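Structure record:
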Amino acid sequence: MIKKENKNNIQVVKDMKECFRSFHLPINKNDGGKDFSVVFTSQICNDHVCAFVAAIYYKQTKYVAIKISFRLRVPSEKFADMWRLLNRLNSMMPLYHYSICTCCNSMSLEGGIFVSEDCLPISKYKNLIHDLLEDSYLCIPLIIAVIKGGNPDELYYQFIKDHQDILKKENSISKDIGHKIISDVETVLAGMQIKIEAENKHDGCFMNILCPEGTDFFLRMGIRVSHDDKMAILNLAPSFIVPDEKIPVMTEFVGRINEISRCQHMFIDMQCNRVNLCTGIMIVDGIIDKNEFELAINAMMAGGFLFFPIIKDLILSNESLETLVTKICGIAKCDI
């Protein structure tokens, strides 16, 4: 007899495949694993993008991810410009992020959603596929332009100007629904014994999170409803800022972290020199999935407790970037 858990896993994978087929994406190899698996692969090929696609189901952490690996290489001498560009792009994208694999100089785009109660939220998964396909189609020409020698800041601002109409969302969430979502968020936080410090009923709430013993800073978590994007956006930032002279190395460090980060990603807010950990929860039919939200909060806190003390070390210590990257890779778990 097949255990209920295995039946649920099989159904999640079946639903993932059907969602891919609805976008006319091919289903290729199946390749399973005990704790996580690349359950199948696919591919994209159009006038802007040629890419390998992996659909991944991390069973232990109840997370499904899609990783698009592009068929282009970033020359090592362009890494600094590319990390700067990706920092800007990733600050706009709560649900997914770009990264560079420093082992093979390849570029990828990865995003995912939590699977509460071992049931794939089909509409959210389809929305994720759509957004990843659209974003890669729009952004790959921009990335290629930087690889060819373009200025990352100038090209980014021109990109935003050229795509204002496309980037603008339709059918935004009403203020009343935003009010209800924040109330639901407060209920979950109260159950997790997280105290809210301040709130704006229509837009979001903020709270201070204690760091592990031995650190000399605190974390501030912000949760806000993005009415146009129809999602709750979670940001976690430390109380310290990055000195101007450390911004270049920190931009690289954040880019390296995004190579291994899964359920969330990092970017530097250049207006205040503060590193942010970010993720998003889609809102469908005006409802936020409370179980999914709690999974995201726990993953954010685990990531913050791991990443931010090491980021502080990069600012204050003489340890090399490579040493600290190795340190993170050695202790990173599959739930971050």
Summary: The mean pLDDT is 87. Residues 175-331 form a domain with the Yope Regulator; Chain: A, fold (CATH 3.30.1460.10). The first strand starts at residue 36 and ends at 45.
